[in-house]
Each structure stands twice: as structure tokens, then as C-alpha cells.
TrEMBL record:
<keyword id="KW-0804">Transcription</keyword>
<dbReference type="InterPro" id="IPR010982">
    <property type="entry name" value="Lambda_DNA-bd_dom_sf"/>
</dbReference>
<dbReference type="GO" id="GO:0000976">
    <property type="term" value="F:transcription cis-regulatory region binding"/>
</dbReference>
<keyword id="KW-0678">Repressor</keyword>
<dbReference type="InterPro" id="IPR000843">
    <property type="entry name" value="HTH_LacI"/>
</dbReference>
<keyword id="KW-0238">DNA-binding</keyword>
<keyword id="KW-0805">Transcription regulation</keyword>
<dbReference type="Pfam" id="PF00356">
    <property type="entry name" value="LacI"/>
</dbReference>
<keyword id="KW-0614">Plasmid</keyword>
<dbReference type="InterPro" id="IPR046335">
    <property type="entry name" value="LacI/GalR-like_sensor"/>
</dbReference>
<protein>
    <recommendedName>
        <fullName>HTH lacI-type domain-containing protein</fullName>
    </recommendedName>
</protein>
<feature type="domain" description="HTH lacI-type">
    <location>
        <begin position="11"/>
        <end position="65"/>
    </location>
</feature>
<dbReference type="GO" id="GO:0003700">
    <property type="term" value="F:DNA-binding transcription factor activity"/>
</dbReference>
<dbReference type="Pfam" id="PF13377">
    <property type="entry name" value="Peripla_BP_3"/>
</dbReference>
<dbReference type="InterPro" id="IPR028082">
    <property type="entry name" value="Peripla_BP_I"/>
</dbReference>
Length: 368
């Protein structure tokens, strides 16, 4: 009975050591990735481990090293294209460096985020990558830091934390997009988001807040008065956002151009425009953040603001791993990556001009 159980059991460090002809301590150092072992001994141990199909005991390893080789990732919405692509890049980068990933979704809810961080700490993750649901309620992240768990912020800037951050430079991207509308002759330009706006602009997540600020700055540059009614927020509810858009599109002073803060919002806009009988770009021009695959499959293909999501997520992961591997004393660093406006076919001169043009570089005919 004992022989049968032994034959079916997983190979141990001692088994690998015997097969390699080295001491158990040497095999443990090689398999655990700590301490020193000569190159010949390392090759013998790894070859023996492969032949025996050895699988490391993660619990034993974490007890020996104080590390679990896991990274906790806490994001707002795993169904969101932006975060889905980011998670893929985080996982690839972490795995390439010997780390596993534990994922939590918060639905932009601070309480769910607090709970997720507590769970991650209980599982003894080595560090966290977090996309905070709030720029204000961050006490749980401060607590994580005080408990010795380093974290890096993904996509969202929270200056009060003074934390490592990798994000998109949203302000100039939004400013450029609105400038594109202005150069084509648009004056009634709407910004559309599905974010919650309770408490005012300062409570928005940093990407939405910065896009709103870039939108306003471009209007100011063009001498166009900012109309608060043209900044729509759905409160996290697509149907509520659609109702607001429908009402705006059916008004006498409907916008001639829309800036969607995400590709998901752009889909809501397109649905409403279809329902009310307006077309892009003949009746309304449209630009959205995120270069989603579908944006080139519609007619016309949408002008978009492409974000380097893979590069951003890889940089976040590499920064956290650097912290975990000993870079604990350097000051927190903020890295902003540039977005790129890709001009396609969804921007034209508004109807009040007889001559039509497409995308950037178009100016309305002179009325003098």
C-alpha cells in the first residue's frame, strides 16, 4: 500500500536531489530560485526536475522565501475593452518574470475595491496593481502600503498617494480631438461619458476628469463658450445615458459633434443616432477614445484616439516587479504615455456649410 501511494505521489525536492546527484539543500536553492548554486549543479537539478515532472510546492516556497510570487490586480471592469487588453499584457509580463496573477473586479465601487484589497492581502500577494475607483477614498491603499505591500497605479492618477503610476496623457489627447472638430467648423461639441458625476468634477476618475478638462480647454482655445448641458454623464447606466442622449439629439440645439470617452460610450451614441434618424458623418461627427476592433468595421470607420494599452500595462507590471526585486527606496515615479489620434471617416464639416470635408485639416468656407 505504501509503495503504491509513493509511486503515485508527486516528486519532492529530495527526489530531484537524488536524481541529480546533489544535496537536498542545493536542489532546494535551484528549484526555489534563491541562494547560490554552481552552473553545473543548476543544470543537473533542472534536468532532473524536468525528467521527474517536478512541480514546486508554492506554500513551502512562500514559507521559505517570504514571497508567494503572485501579483494582485484590482481593476474597475474586466468586460471593458481597455482593461481586458491591459489584463492580458499584465499577465504576460508577470508570467514572463515568474509571477502569477490574482484578479479582482470592482465595478467602479470603492467598497468592492476595499474588499478586494483585503482579500489580496489575506492571500499574501507580493504586490498590487490597482486602477482606483476613486481619487479621494484611498485609505485602503494607504493601509496596504503600511502593511508592506507595494502597489502601482494603473491608468489612474491619485496625487495624494504619491505612488508609482503609469497612465495615458489624457488632457492633450482630448484637446486635440476637440480641436479636430473645431477646425472642421463645429461649435456645438458634446463630451459623453458613462461615469458617475455625483459630487462634481473632482470626484471623477482621473482619465475622465482630464478628458473633460482637455475638452473645455479646446473650447476656450477656439473662443467657444462652454455649455454644461453638452457634457453628459450616464452614471454607470447605459439606458440612462441613452435617454439623455436621445433628449439632447432631439432638441433644437443638438450638438453637431460628439467626443466619446470610451468605445463603449461610442456604441451607445451610435445606437441613439440610429434611433433618431441621424447619421455619421452627414448629420453628426464622432470621435472616441480606444481603437476598438469594431471601429474600422462600421461605415464610416470611426476616427479614434488610440491608447498604447499593452505598453502601459507592461510598464506598470515591470515597475511593480522592480519594487519587489529590491528597488524599494527610490521615489515614486509617474509615467504618462501619449495617445494618438487616428483620422478616418467620422468627422466632416457640419451641415450649415454647403461644402463637405473629412477629418483633420478641413476648414469651413469663408462667409465673407
Amino acid at each position: 500500500m505504501k509503495t503504491s501511494e509513493r509511486a503515485n505521489s508527486q516528486p519532492t525536492v529530495s527526489d530531484v536531489a537524488r536524481a541529480a546527484g546533489v544535496s537536498r539543500a542545493t536542489a532546494a536553492r535551484v528549484l526555489g530560485g534563491y541562494g547560490y548554486a554552481g552552473s553545473e549543479a543548476r543544470e543537473l537539478v533542472l534536468d532532473a526536475a524536468k525528467r521527474l515532472a517536478y512541480q514546486p510546492n508554492q506554500l513551502a516556497r512562500s514559507m521559505a522565501t517570504g514571497r508567494t510570487k503572485t501579483i494582485g490586480v484590482v481593476v474597475a471592469d474586466i468586460e471593458n475593452l481597455y482593461f481586458a487588453r491591459a489584463i492580458r499584457a499584465i499577465t504576460d509580463t508577470a508570467n514572463a518574470n515568474g509571477f502569477d496573477v490574482v484578479l479582482a473586479n470592482t465595478d467602479e465601487n470603492v467598497e468592492l475595491e476595499r474588499s478586494a484589497v483585503r482579500v489580496m492581502l489575506a492571500k499574501r500577494v507580493d504586490g498590487l496593481i490597482v486602477s482606483p475607483a476613486s481619487s479621494v477614498d484611498v485609505d485602503h491603499l494607504v493601509e496596504a502600503r503600511n502593511l508592506g505591500c507595494p502597489f502601482v497605479l494603473l491608468d489612474r492618477r491619485v496625487p495624494v498617494l504619491k505612488a508609482d503610476t503609469v497612465a495615458i496623457d489624457n488632457f492633450p489627447a482630448a484637446r486635440e480631438a476637440v480641436g479636430t472638430f473645431v477646425r472642421s467648423g463645429h461649435k456645438r461639441i458634446a463630451l459623453v461619458s458613462n461615469s458617475r458625476f455625483e459630487g462634481g468634477q473632482k470626484y471623477l476618475t482621473s482619465p475622465v476628469r482630464e478628458r473633460l478638462e482637455g475638452y473645455k480647454a479646446a473650447l476656450h482655445d477656439a473662443g467657444i463658450q462652454n455649455d454644461p448641458k453638452l457634457a453628459l454623464f450616464g452614471g454607470g447606466n447605459n439606458e440612462q445615458l441613452a435617454q439623455k442622449l436621445r433628449k439632447l439629439c432631439q432638441s433644437d440645439e443638438r450638438p453637431t459633434a460628439f467626443l466619446a470617452v470610451t468605445s463603449a460610450v461610442a456604441l451607445v451614441i451610435l445606437g441613439v443616432l440610429r434611433d433618431v434618424g441621424l447619421s455619421v458623418p452627414d448629420d453628426v461627427s464622432l470621435i472616441c477614445f480606444e481603437n476598438a476592433d469594431w471601429t474600422v468595421a462600421v461605415t464610416p470607420p470611426l476616427t479614434v484616439i488610440a491608447q498604447p494599452i499593452k505598453e502601459l500595462a507592461s510598464a506598470v507590471t515591470e515597475r511593480l516587479i522592480a519594487r519587489l526585486q529590491g528597488d524599494l527606496k527610490s521615489q515614486a515615479k509617474e509615467t504618462l504615455l501619449s495617445a494618438t489620434l487616428i483620422s478616418r471617416g467620422s468627422v466632416s464639416i457640419p451641415q450649415l456649410f454647403e461644402s463637405r470635408g473629412r477629418d483633420t485639416g478641413n476648414t469651413p468656407p469663408s462667409t465673407s
